[in-house]
Design a protein that fits this description.
By secondary structure, this protein is mostly helical. The chain contains two helices and no strands. 6% of the residues are buried.
């Protein structure tokens, strides 16, 4: 066991939620924006694709964003006595 404390101070995962929102919305923008500039694509399918993606992607990516945030925190602030291996 590594004895890494996952829950730290109150609000520790606030940045993970922000990371989650930014990555999710960038994915939605990368999919919907190129389609919206095409005049042959009607708006209704864009709404039917974009709105559910914008709602569901943050839920699907939440655990991954927490994991990414913990790994970034551990990389930038390693536990005492456990430095970067290189």
């Amino acid at each position: 066991m590594c004895h890494y404390t996952f829950e730290r101070e109150v609000g520790y995962f606030t940045a993970a939620m922000a990371l989650n929102l930014v990555v999710s919305e960038l994915i939605v923008a990368a999919i919907v924006l190129p389609l919206s500039f095409n005049p042959t694509v009607p708006l209704v399918p864009l709404f039917l694709l974009g709105i559910p993606l914008a709602i569901l992607l943050p839920f699907a990516f939440y655990r991954h964003s927490r994991c990414l945030w913990m790994s970034l925190d551990h990389f930038l602030n390693p536990a005492p006595g456990r430095g970067i291996p290189w």
